[in-house]
Every structure is written in C-alpha cells, then in structure tokens.
Amino acid sequence: MPTSNRTWRVLFLCTHNSARSILAEALATHLGQGRLQGYSAGSQPSGTVNPHALATLQRLGYRVDGLRSKSWEEFIGPDAVPMDLVITVCDNAAHEICPVWPGNPVPTHWACPDPSSTRGGAHATARAFQQTAQLIADRIQRLLVLPLDAMDAAAIGIALAAIAQDTRPAALEPVT
Question: What share of the chain is helix, strand, coil (3-state, %, to 5)?
C-alpha cells in the first residue's frame, strides 16, 4: 500500500444517510487506518441510522460510536472541514444538485444496492447489508492502493470511476 502522512477526507452521500453512506463512512475510517477519514451525509437525512447497518458493522468488528444521520449542510460553509473526495453511493443522490463543497473535492458515483429495501425477513436483510458492506469494502480497498498523493484531480476522478466500473454490485439474491 502506498504510504503518505496525509489523511484523505472522504464524504459519502446518500439521500437519507441511514444505511449505505453510514456503512461507507465506518468502513473507510476503519480500513483506511489513518490514510482515509470517512464522513457521511444526506440531502434529506432520516435522522436515524438503520439498525441493520449498525448491526452489520458491529458483526464485522467495526466501531459504531459517533455514527449518526446528518445533513450535507454540515459540510458546506466557511467552517466546514474541506473534503478531498465526495462519493455518492445511491442513485438518487447522484442525480441531485449538490452544494458547492469547500476545498474543491473530486466527485464520483459508486452505485450500491439499497439493502434497506430488501424483503424476505431477517436473514435476507442481514445478507443484503453484508453484501453491500462487502461491495463498499472492496471499493475502499482498491482506493487505498491508488497513489493518490502522486495523482492530479482528473486522474483521481478517472481511477475512482474505474473502481466503480470494475466492482459492480451483484444482484441481491432472492430468498427461497
């Protein structure tokens, strides 16, 4: 893995900031081991984190303290922490008009299936959240091998888009 003293700040966006973006925030921070700091927000935050997202993270051994559903308004304005990367993880958020982010971060879209829309009971829901967490983790692992400090914004954008193309979400398996 390339080394750097810099911590890259990554904001994950989803409309309600309750499941996918929460998973991504925790996974980026944990897997990044100081190289990435994950954040998450939503355009229309639900105000609560999906309990299945928290249960999935806990099952994986990741910290969940401090995770909360919040508005992207917290990440704009003069006092906001500037982000390096802004990644939408739901198709709705990808098509929304985003605010102007401080620091001119590199944007991209990593489509992820919505595990909270899974039907079929507790087992199917747990499996869907696990699959989504694995997809996000796979993408973050690929992000971590990029020599980000040696790349310009255009090259980072191309690399982030390639990660999404090369790690397409698997269809959620139907429950039988």
Answer: 40, 10, 45
In this predicted model, what pLDDT tens digit does every residue of 119-154 receive, in sequence order? 888 999 999 999 999 999 999 999 999 999 999 999
Rg (CA), the chain: 15
User: Rounded distance, CA 153 to CA 171, Å?
Assistant: 31
pLDDT over 90 (residue 52):
yes
- State pLDDT tens for residues 61-85: 998 999 999 999 999 988 899 999 9
Torsion of CA 73, 23, 116, 89, to 10 degrees: 60
**What's the CA gap between 22 and 20, in Å, rounded?**
5
CA dihedral 60, 66, 72, 73 (to 10 degrees): 180
Q: Are 110 and 131 in contact (CB under 8 A)?
A: no
**Amino acid sitting at position 16:** H
